[in-house]
Design brief:
The chain is an alpha+beta fold. It has a single domain (about 5-180), classed as Alpha-Beta Plaits (2-Layer Sandwich). About 20% of the residues lie in helices and about 30% in strands. It contains six helices and twelve strands. The strands form five sheets. The chain has a four-stranded mixed β-sheet. Strands 2-3 form a two-stranded antiparallel ribbon. The relative contact order is 0.23.
Length: about 180
């Protein structure tokens, strides 16, 4: 299987929260924390119409993950495929990665006393499946795509990308983010 990344089409998210529920069920998470959070935006005026948008937010698996620099025991690593993971057996619960993540995507599990975050469901990926949030997205807002598919799907759309996650929209003007010196 070729390397894939998560594409989030903001225009297609209907705010059903299926991605949040799928994540919780897949990882046996309690009510809090939420490794995947759907954030409502608006309502806002777009042209002459009001719009309420929803944006799924999760770990973007940075190209250069700051969280790993903050971990004193090297429990956070980046896999060959670019996915940033936390080794739960190595995590000491110091929470430095929680404070060091500029996106607020790492959470502390007070019950288990360890840090946790979206792993893009690496066990599913390793079995040739897509992440659980993608599988359960009823609006088609979440896709697990190759680089080639990404270019075809997002042609002519606004995109913002870092790491393994790319946001796209035809309505929103997204901030330019770069990967490897080029715009996604």
């Amino acid at each position: 299987m070729s390397e894939r990344l998560l594409l989030i089409d903001v225009d297609k998210c209907v705010g059903c929260y299926a991605c949040e529920i799928a994540c919780k069920q897949e990882h046996h998470l309690p009510l809090e924390p939420r490794w995947c959070t759907v954030i409502p935006i608006g309502p806002r005026k777009l042209g002459e119409k009001l719009h309420l948008d929803f944006v799924p937010a999760l770990c973007i698996h940075c190209d250069d993950p700051l969280c790993s620099y903050f971990c004193p025991v090297d429990a956070i690593s980046k896999r060959q495929d670019g996915i940033v993971v936390i080794d739960e057996d190595e995590c000491t619960g110091c929470r430095l990665c929680v404070y060091g993540c500029p996106y607020g995507a790492i959470y502390f599990d007070h019950e288990r006393k360890i840090a946790g975050k979206c792993s893009l469901c690496v066990s599913r990926i390793d079995d040739g499946l897509e992440p659980s949030c993608v599988q359960h997205c009823i609006g088609g807002a979440l896709l697990f795509v190759t680089e080639e598919e990404l270019g075809q799907i997002t042609e002519g759309m606004h995109t913002a990308r870092d790491g393994k996650v790319c946001y796209t929209s035809s309505k929103w003007k997204l901030p330019l983010m770069r990967k490897g010196g080029r715009c996604c």
